[in-house]
Design brief:
Number of strands: 0
Strand content: under 5%
Mean pLDDT: 84
Number of helices: 4
Structural class: mainly alpha
Radius of gyration: 18 Å
Length: about 110
Amino acid sequence: MDYKETKAPVSTITYDKEAIEQPTENIYEAISIIAKRATQINSDLKKELVDKLDEFATYNDSLEEVFENKEQIEVSKFYERLPKPHAIAVEEWLDGDVYFRSPDNK
C-alpha cells in the first residue's frame, strides 16, 4: 500500500469513540485491531526506509570517515514528515479499509 498518499493527520486529533467502536461494538477490540494494523504499517515503512537508505550506504573499514550524504538526509526527512503509523491505521479503520474477523463467529 502507498502510505505516502494517505490523508491521515500528521498531528494528534480527537476521534469520536462511537465511530471507532461501531464496526466491532467493542472499543477494546477495535483498539486492538488498530494497534495490530499500526504495527504492520510501521514494519512496512521501516523496511522501505532501510531499503532506500541501503542504496546510499558506503562500506568503509575506517570509523574516522563519516560522510554526510544529502540524498540520504532528504529521504530520512521525508519519512519523518509522514503521518505516524497509528494515525494511518485509525484513518484506514474509519474508512473501512481494514479487514478483520473474529474467531468466535463462523
